[in-house]
Design brief:
heterodimer, A: 460 residues, alpha/beta, 2 domains, ten-stranded mixed sheet, 10 helices, 21% helix, globular, disordered C terminus, B: 254 residues, 12 strands, binds adenosine-5'-triphosphate, binds magnesium ion
């Protein structure tokens, strides 16, 4: 696979380079060298010990180095009406920005939303100033690979002092008749005193195999604020690795919520640098997995400056042979005095075959810090189950109620009311086995049979 | 209504109830008293269907049916209610949702239409008054953050909603202040009908001033060693359990 990718790069380098800036193309070359050296991560890599990418890479993938969606009438393909949310929504199809209205939209307040490929042409200085500045190429090889091949994705620029009231919604769709390998790249810049809410939905329209290797870079300037929500509802055959790199400046606030409702193979990497004092960083996650689904959440919070706080809460319910991995590392550097860092991972296992690996990890070099971490893996509380049943609830209902209660803590932390309600409903449906992968939006998708995934409640 | 015959129960090989017999008829109130650890809560749990206990011997008939073959939820829908000595906290499950689900599952079992949200809320408000509950409950999790006394009141509130035929109240009086005790007793008495029955498990004769029993049983070492009328409770209050042990010919066990 590695050799093939290197070949592909050379064969298609004119296409891949496209209209990218010279700086980006130099970065691309560095990244390619890095990928050539590191290759794909294997289970010998500490961060990939329990998550084996190898089987995913066995597929003969196709690549799409040309934006074919330009000519597509996306509104004919589907109408996406995800939440009762008033959002500014943009779509990526197979990794390419969909030119619904225009490749780039400039709002009256100066905000720019649109295609990264186009942004490299129209705002080369801005792109050069930020692109590649948060990503870490030395890691697993995947971020380097994405950077080498980067062509398009979402670009958002929010100028100083601008508060975006309407959430921006990114809908990331994979639709292909052949197994597709895609590598979207997103760049989000939120300037001083500005704020942004981004809702990022990943889903697939087909049940074909796909591998999405996404890299996101987000810059949260002084006193800026980003709320980032990610909802993953993908087919069983999809593999999705998302590497998110955040850099926070003085007094900025960042909150992320990742809700994984379905997915064959999902790995979310969150790498956050608290580079200046006074930052707050909050990260919540929920995963509901069954059958052979595999979900891995890897967080790294780098407290590089004093007086910052970070919180992580990840919760998951696992049924059948599902597997969940959580690794959360908090690094408190020597200067990061008065750091407050909390981390927790809770898993509910419904079968003996389901498995959760939790590895919370603290590395502390400062002396005035308050940190805590914890991880639990457990079953439903039998006393509570009996209490509910003793009032006439059948076992199935009692289990549903308990699982819902476990999961909903994460959903309730979501501050957009409409989104929280919608997710609440989706979680409930998911736990009843009634959520299809096409459910998330009212997609008129081409698949005839909606697939449902069933966390089996009737057993035991 | 309830006949327990020659019941022996154990947990992890440890015998708790032995050759236990009890007969409860419609309209009756029974009180079960006895020292700590003698098996009172075990008895209540076995009647309600807790699976962790092993029934080694004997049978329980409830309205002519073999109770031991029924799942806990079926027992509940058939009219058995257990007021827990230690009500369980269930974070995230709202009281209102829980009770509405419970009532509707029972109604479905009985072939009745489910209650609408509005109907349920109306009934809930009525029953809250019965046990003098002020808090809203709709958005509160089951027993979470309730004080000891509030938990006990909440048990009676649930009983009022479910209108059982046979209620077993396991130390519902402990942890209640005197006013709350009266409220709870009043609630229980209001819920009394000719065709239902109540078994109260208690350590204190005080409760029996308000809920007047037809029979008082003394449980010791897993079986009933003495039964009598309500005067027996007064006698116990005055004299303790020693004389009963002697009377029953039981050596002072360590
Ligand atoms: N889960 C259990 N595992 C082991 N032993 C148990 C368990 N539950 C109860 N027992 C034991 O069974 C015996 C009877 O307990 P039970 O709770 O029925 O007593 P009780 O009469 O209700 O006491 P109290 O007045 O203190 O409530 C005790 O010795 C207790 O330790
Ligand atoms: Mg007891």
């Amino acid at each position: 696979m590695k050799e093939r990718l290197l070949e592909l790069f050379h064969e298609n380098s004119a296409l891949i380079r496209g209209q990218a800036t010279p700086l980006v193309n130099r970065l691309r070359q560095n990244a390619l060298d890095r990928f050539e050296k590191n290759g794909f991560p294997d289970t010998g890599n500490e961060s990939w010990r329990f998550t084996n990418l190898e089987p995913v890479l066995l597929t003969e993938f196709a690549f799409d180095f040309q934006n074919q969606s330009r000519s597509l009438d996306i509104d004919k393909l589907f109408t996406c009406d995800v939440y009762d949310l008033d959002t500014f929504s943009v779509t990526l199809l197979n990794g390419w920005f969909v030119y619904k209205h225009a490749p780039l939209t400039r709002l009256a307040n100066g905000t720019v939303i649109g295609s990264l490929a186009k942004a490299m042409e129209v705002y080369p200085d801005l792109v050069d100033q930020y692109l590649g500045k948060a990503v870490k190429l030395e890691g697993s090889g995947l971020a380097a690979l994405n950077t080498a091949f980067l062509q398009d994705g979402l670009f958002i620029y929010v100028p100083e002092g601008t508060v975006i009231e309407r959430p921006i919604q990114l809908i990331n769709i994979v639709n292909s008749n052949v197994p597709l390998f895609l590598q979207p790249r997103h760049l989000v810049i939120v300037e001083k005193n500005a704020s942004l809410t981004l809702v990022h939905c990943d889903h697939s329209l087909t049940h074909k195999v796909s591998f999405t290797n996404t890299v996101v870079e987000m810059f949260v300037a002084e006193n800026a604020h980003i709320d980032h929500y990610k909802i993953q509802n993908k087919g069983r055959n999809s593999a999705l690795v998302t590497s998110n790199y955040f850099v926070q400046k003085k007094d900025s606030r960042l909150s992320t919520s990742i809700v994984t409702l379905n997915g064959g193979f999902t790995k979310n990497i969150l790498d956050v640098t608290l580079s200046q004092p006074g930052c707050h960083s909050e990260h919540n996650g929920l995963y509901l997995v069954d059958s052979n689904q595999h979900v891995d959440n890897q967080l790294f919070i780098d407290h590089a400056a004093p007086d910052c706080t970070s919180e992580q809460l990840y919760k998951g319910i696992l049924d059948d042979q599902a597997r969940a991995v959580f690794s959360g590392k908090v690094m408190v550097r020597r200067d990061a005095q008065r750091t407050r860092a909390y981390q927790n991972n809770k898993n509910l296992l419904l079968t003996d075959d389901a498995k959760a690996n939790a590895q919370p990890f603290l590395e502390i070099y400062a002396d005035d810090v308050k940190c805590s971490h914890g991880a639990t893996v457990g079953q439903l509380d039998p006393d509570a189950m009996f209490y509910l049943r003793s009032r006439g609830l059948c076992e199935r209902t009692a289990r549903q109620l308990m699982m819902y209660a476990f999961a909903i803590e994460i959903v309730q932390k979501i501050s957009i009311e409409a989104l929280s309600q919608r997710l609440d409903h989706m979680v409930e449906k998911r736990l009843k086995g009634e959520l299809s992968i096409c459910d998330q939006c009212v997609l008129h998708c081409n698949s005839k049979e909606p697939t449902t995934f069933n966390i089996d409640l009737s057993l035991l | 209504m309830l006949s327990i015959r020659n019941l022996s129960v154990s947990i992890n090989g440890k015998n708790i109830l032995r050759n236990f017999n009890l007969e409860v008829k419609e309209g009756e109130i029974h009180a079960i008293m006895g020292p700590n650890g003698t098996g009172k809560s075990t008895l209540a749990a076995v009647i309600a269907g807790r699976e962790m206990f092993d029934v080694d011997e004997g049978e329980i008939l409830y309205r002519g049916q073999n109770l031991l073959e029924m799942k806990p939820e079926i027992r509940a829908r058939e009219g058995i209610f257990l007021g827990f000595q230690y009500p369980v906290e269930i974070p995230g499950v709202s009281m209102a949702n829980f009770m509405r689900t419970a009532m509707n599952e029972k109604r479905k079992y009985l072939g009745l239409e489910p209650l609408t949200g509005a109907e349920f809320l109306k009934i809930m408000e009525e029953k809250k008054k019965l046990v003098d509950i002020q808090s809203k409950l709709t958005n509160r999790s089951v027993n979470e953050g309730f004080s000891g006394g509030e938990k006990k009141k909440n048990e009676i509130f649930q009983m009022a909603l479910l209108e059982p035929r046979l209620a077993i109240l396991d130390e519902t009086d402990s942890g209640l202040d005197i006013d709350a005790l009266k409220v709870v007793a009043k609630g229980v008495n209001k819920l009394r009908r000719k065709d239902n029955a109540t078994v109260v498990i208690t350590h204190y004769q005080r409760l029996l001033d308000y809920i007047v029993p037809d029979f008082v049983h003394v449980l010791f070492d897993g079986r009933i060693v003495k039964s009598g009328g309500k005067d027996l409770a007064i006698e116990l209050e005055n004299k303790g359990y020693e004389w009963i042990k002697k009377e029953a010919g039981i050596e002072n066990a360590a």
